[in-house]
Amino acid sequence: MRDYVAPIQGDVQSSCMFEPPSIAENIRRVEKKLLAACQRAGRPEGEVKLMAVSKTHPAQAIADAAAAGVRLFGENRVQEFQQKSLELNGLGVHVAVGADGDSAVHVHLIGHLQSNKAARAAEIFTGVDTVDSLKLALRLDEAGDKLGRRLPVLLEIKVSEEAAKTGLEPASTELADLLERLPDLRHLQMRGLMTVAPLDDNPETARNCFRELCQLRERFAARYPGLDFGELSMGMSGDFEIAIEEGSTLVRIGTAIFGSRPKPA
Ligand SMILES: *Cc1c(COP(=O)(O)O)cnc(C)c1O
Questions:
Q1: In a domain, 233, yes or no
Q2: What is the pLDDT of residues 49-95, one digit of tens each?
Q3: How far is ligand 1, taken at its centre, from the CA of residue 11, in Å?
Q4: DSSP label at 154?
Q5: CA-to-CA dists, residue 64 to 21, 54, 90, angstroms
Q6: Which residues span the domain enclosing 69?
Q7: Residue 238 Cα, ligand 1 centroid: separation in angstroms?
Q8: Would residue 49 count as lying in a domain?
């Protein structure tokens, strides 16, 4: 079978002019940058995890990245991943849901989830990183109960003023309510916070956003000592090195690994 070939990218120096870089080569390049950013920031290597964001790319691309050593993937749509997870089984790649074995890959949902799809999401994803309402948290907890599993979750926080984005407002009563109730939602395993920085040519905009999430985490960790705020998911292809400098523990990389995606219609 022919490997999936990532579309050609802008920042390609090392590879031959006529061969697009393979997914494995892209992964090595990203890992190198990740390591260098950790060193610059004086952080131990291994403190920052790499998530490969495979949305819009075929199951074969996930299989190739898994073969190159990636163990954590991000997908943004329930329906799209449902189809792909079936194809992945055919490719011999198994997705860890609940207490599955170590050989499996982990796939987290990183896109907005409607509460009416919570049950399906809890069935097919290892975890949900975009809990952005109390209602969704309650639905996911219910789904976890039915499935007999504890679902790892992150709360998505909207730290920038950009209007079109999802996420809980840092000072909202909804977020405060959710944090109060999380210890009782026994089928959710609270792991931390995530955010998406606004698209902006100025990298300092992203830096401010990441810094704010990091400070928020400190405040919440002090106020809610019973909850785990260990994970700080922030940083994408264009800004992950800044995110690492600002305390990210998990970077979500799509384009730099799989190539560019078709533009949304
Ligand atoms: C698509 C997506 C990414 C990956 O973005 P790239 O710029 O391609 O690395 C990361 N996080 C979220 C939430 C996404 O939707």
A1: yes
A2: 999 999 999 999 999 999 999 999 999 999 999 999 999 999 999 99
A3: 18
A4: E
A5: 13, 11, 14
A6: 22-257
A7: 9
A8: yes
